[in-house]
Structures are given as C-alpha cells and as structure tokens.
Amino acid sequence: MSLQNVTTHQAVLGAVIARLRGESGLKQTDLAEALGITPSAYSRMEKGESAMSTEQLRLLAERLKVTASHILELTDEASAALSENSGVSVKSLSREAWGAGAMVAAGFMPIAGAALGALVGNLLQKHFAKGKKNDEQ
Q: Tens digits of per-residue pLDDT, 4-62?
C-alpha cells in the first residue's frame, strides 16, 4: 500500500505562526504570555496539536505586528504550495482521526512537527524574499 503525505490546516497555521514568530525575534514564552496560556499549551498550538480561538489568533497577530487576515492568507498560500510543490495534502481532520496509527491504516502518512515546519519555512522564505524585493523597488 502506498501512503499519501498529509497534514492538517491547523498544523500549517501553527507552522506559519512559528515562522512569523522567528522572523519577529520572539520566543514561544513571549507569545504564551501574550495569550495568557502556558508555554506548553502554546507549543501545542504551533505543532498543530491544539486549536486556537479567534481571539487567540487576534492577540497573536497583534503581538506579531501583522493582521489576523495576513496570517490566514499565508496559511492558505502555504497549504496550496504544499499540495502543488511538495505533494502534501492538507486536510481538515478531527483530532481523533489525526492519530498516527489511524492515519497510516487509512493510507495517509502524517507530516507534522519539524518536517512540516521545514516545508512551510522553505515556502514562506520565498514569500518573504519576494516581499523584500517588492519593497526595494
């Protein structure tokens, strides 16, 4: 049986936020404090293991000095690019369905954590480089 590489929208959103956090020079503890949650709870959000509320997204955007719509736009762009360039399907899956054993049994290979971060980071690097070129012109 061949496996299809797959991730969740939630995990891509977390990877985008991690990238923006890194670009801003902030630490996970800085953003956890801004949200009023523990660093471990915040870490789970960046890994896509835990969902964030719209209020948390708004507070993150404010702390990162971007708009929530910009974060969601980058997430959409990264999701599309993952599918087109990396062969990774981005799915909306329930937490129960995202268990690694269940995913493999269904023919999916979960892509998360560092692997997803690296893929999204590379895709966003192109986005940021393109934005800097436009700013310089």
A: 566 777 888 888 999 999 999 999 999 999 999 999 999 988 888 888 888 999 999 99
Task: Tell me the β-bridge partners of 110.
Answer: 6
Closest CA to 32 of 16, 44, 22, 15: 44
Q: pTM score, two decimals? A: 0.69
Residues 6+ apart with CB under 8 A from 34: 59, 60, 62, 63
Where do runs of H (alpha helix) occur along 47-112? 54-64, 68-81, 100-105
Residue from 121, 91, 133 nearest 17 by CA = 121
Contacts of 110 (CB under 8 A, 6+ apart): 6, 7, 98, 100, 103, 104
Structural domain span for residue 16:
4-136
- Which one-letter DSSP state was computed for residue 93? -
Q: What domain count does the chain have?
A: 1
List, in order, residues 6 or more apart from 66 with CB less than 8 Å away: 20
Two structure tokens written together for 122: 């590379």
Which residue has 């959000």 as its token pair? 45
